[in-house]
Amino acid sequence: MKIPLHVQLRRQSNNLLNTLLSSFTKHKSDTPFIDKEKVKSILIIRPNYRIGNLIFLTPLINTLAKELPDAKIDIIVGMKLAGDILQELPNVDKVIAIPRKLLKEPLHLYDFIKETRKKKYDVALNIMAASTSSQLVTTLTNAEYKASYYNEKSWARLTHTTAFTHLYQHIGLESLELVRLFNIEPPTQNLKFDIRLKEAEIKEAKKDIAKLLEKNSIPKEQKVIALFRNARFDKRITDTWWQEWFEALDVKRNNITVVDILSPDIPKKLNSQVLEYSNKNLRLLGAFFHECDLFISADTGPMHLAVASQAKVLALFNKTSISAYGALGEKNKTIDINHLQAKDVAKITKDFL
User: Fold this and answer.
1) Domain range holding 346?
2) Cβ atoms of residues 1 and 235 within 8 Å
3) Are residues 31 and 174 in the same domain?
4) Last-in-domain residue among 182, 210, 232
5) How far apart are CA 274 and CA 225, in angstroms?
6) 347 and 232, same structural domain?
């Protein structure tokens, strides 16, 4: 995947800063376990603004809720809109968002830190050991124990670390290795992303689909495909390609309805033949994906949202690793489209549908 120059420069500068600061920190690679029976409050630290990276927290959160049923969980994220996805997960008490503007407003940032530090946690878990922002938040957090993976470039003072062993191929499962901090063996079966949709959310999505079909005089028996056309950087598939895919899909002959999912970056639908839908509530958007017969997109956050909503997903990859970022789950399919034409993918779509 081709990464823009400004992103590369930011990552390089952060890496240099972390390397410098870590030289003043004493590292420990082997520390005692945290007694899970005494843990009543956990703060998960992931100040990130991307939907996919927050979806990747769901295996850890659901596992902690199962293994430490009496522990309440707060989560620090970067974007409230994405963070709200996690609010309904078991044992989650509060999702705390750090708005980007705070970084430019020192006084408001100080007030935010002061308010956050009012609560004392038993454990603060830094999901990204060497992330500059995550380490800064970890340092400022009021917690008895502060824990993360062992990393030579980590400078935050930690009471507990655990080795990162690359147990999982999929990047979205990596945080599960942190359960070793509580002397819990990371699970290896029935692994999935799951935002735990509520029945009321699914019911509302069913109504939205029914209204959409009725408004456009489309029989409810038709197969419905939710299409999302956006993606970051060069993972994005062109509208010309999607139009060729749509034409090869031959929707009238195959009784298929395509619903184009619009967003601030995709304000107009692909063509006059597709329907359109949008929802700023990402949990309800996930419920909409769940109720469609198929969700299709490139490698993007909404794809992982669809997976975590237990939708049927067809993911189209052109840059990133399928094993590391593909649509998790046996019922889902991820394909490399680099050597496929749009019409080939349309056939795969119909067969999979």
Assistant:
1) 199-352
2) yes
3) yes
4) 182
5) 10
6) yes
Q: Tell me the backbone φ, ψ of residue 163, rounded to 5 degrees.
A: -75, 140
pLDDT reported for residue 25: 54
Q: What's the token pair of residue 161?
A: 């670390």
Angle of helix 282-291 relative to helix 301-308, nearest 10 degrees, comes to 70
pLDDT band (50, 70, 90) for residue 117: confident
190: its two tokens: 């029935």
Based on the fold, state whether residues 244 and 301 are members of the same structural domain. Answer: yes
Are 106 and 79 spatial neighbours (Cβ–Cβ below 8 Å)? no
CA angle centred on 149, ends 147 and 154, rounded to 5°: 85
Average pLDDT, stretch 263-268? 94
Question: What CATH number corresponds to the domain at position 324?
Answer: 3.40.50.2000
Determine which of 18-22, 204-208, 303-307, 327-331 has the lowest per-residue pLDDT on average. 18-22
Q: Which residue has the tokens 């409810």?
A: 220
Could you tell me the two tokens for 177?
Answer: 């290795």
**Does residue 221 sit in the same domain as residue 130?**
no
Phi-psi region at 242: left, alpha or beta (left = phi > 0; alpha = psi -120 to 50): alpha
The residue with tokens 């376990």 is: 33
Do 218 and 272 fall within a single domain?
Answer: yes
Is 70 exceeded by the pLDDT of residue 290?
A: yes
> What pTM does this model have?
0.90
Asked if residue 159 and residue 203 are part of one domain, the reply reads no
Based on the structure, what is the number of domains in the chain? Answer: 2
- The answer to whether residue 14 scores a pLDDT higher than 60 is no
